[in-house]
Amino acid sequence: MSITNQKFAPLKNDRLLRALRFEPVDATPVWMMRQAGRYLPEYREVRAKAGDFLSLCKDTDMATEVTLQPLRRFELDAAILFSDILTIPDAFGLGLYFEEGEGPKFKYTVRTPTDLERLPKIDVANQLDYVLKAVTNIRKELNGQVPLFGFSGSPWTLATYMVEGGSSREFRHTKEMMYARPEFLHALLTKISDAVVDYLDAQIIAGANLVQIFDSWGGALGHRQFIEFSHNYNKDIIARLKVKHPDVPVVMFTKGGGLWVDVQAESQADAIGLDWTVRLDKARLTLNEAQRALTIATKKLQKPKAIQGNLDPATLYGSPATIKQAVHDMLSDAYRADKTGYVANFGHGITQWVKPEHAKVFVDAVHDFKI
Ligand code: CP3
Fold first, then answer.
1. pTM attached to this predicted model
2. Are 300 and 250 in contact, with CB atoms under 8 Å apart?
């Protein structure tokens, strides 16, 4: 597919983009991480038809269909491309596969200098064309209903999968590398960063209105290691994207990154995604303080950063009354200092055991809240 700048219908609902720009909003914008997924019976149906998860990602029509499914049920203010962060390691030739009930696995890992040298430069337009086709098709089908998120994993998070060969709790090999061979890990992170920039750039050109970077395992790091091995790469990626697409918002989500909101304030991200360990009123004050300090240090007026999050998705196992109360408490914290600059979401992905009706209670409670 040729990647050209296409014309799409104007947005009918731009609440989320307005909140990210700190403009007034009529109601709080809301979307749900992993909003397309196994908690929806209609997703499971398409997934069964596709056979396996990767075939679902690679089929433009089916990927479009599952992206739109949650928007038919709930009044969400954004769609997110249906794909996975592991498409990049797959394009590096590591052989991604999913073992039923065991999560993602790779045939090959990257642990030796030979492994690293073997990683090809990813040609996004060819190797990941199925993702770009899905982005363009989804954006067309949305017909301006809501903005579309593209996304990527962060270099650190992707590195953990590439080094461990799958999901991990301890990150034994990646951390061994970090402390015994840091220059090797840096070389790997540099290669991944280049791929992430090309990938997000191509998704934006294909039609993504904004992007989110998932640093799902940033919280496994010590604070100095977070800066050196995760944050610095995320910051660099965002800076490179902002040169090409200054007006495309970037949301930086680090699971477990709440202690480093001040550090994350130094990137050009438009919003910081937070998990449920964080008090949103405190995060807001920290970000505002960092913005003031940076403005003085750089003698250049810094833009305020929005926040996104952060309900524990397990809250949705509770009753509708419990969910409504939790939303009320969360939004009260979020708006204590400013009346915009906030996007409601969970602090991580919705789980497969949630009742869809409870997701609806969550979304409606967010919209019903008087700002
Ligand atoms: O948010 C959305 O609706 C868009 C789709 C999306 C998926 N994965 C679909 C998916 C997004 C944004 C992701 C990101 C992703 N993938 C992350 C970062 C976010 C996070 O959760 O921290 C990570 C770490 C992955 C890696 C990954 N993909 C794992 C660990 C798994 C298996 C775990 C599980 O939930 O089964 C996947 C598979 C996956 N990605 C599924 C979905 C809907 C389930 C696959 C299935 O249908 O069997």
1. 0.96
2. no
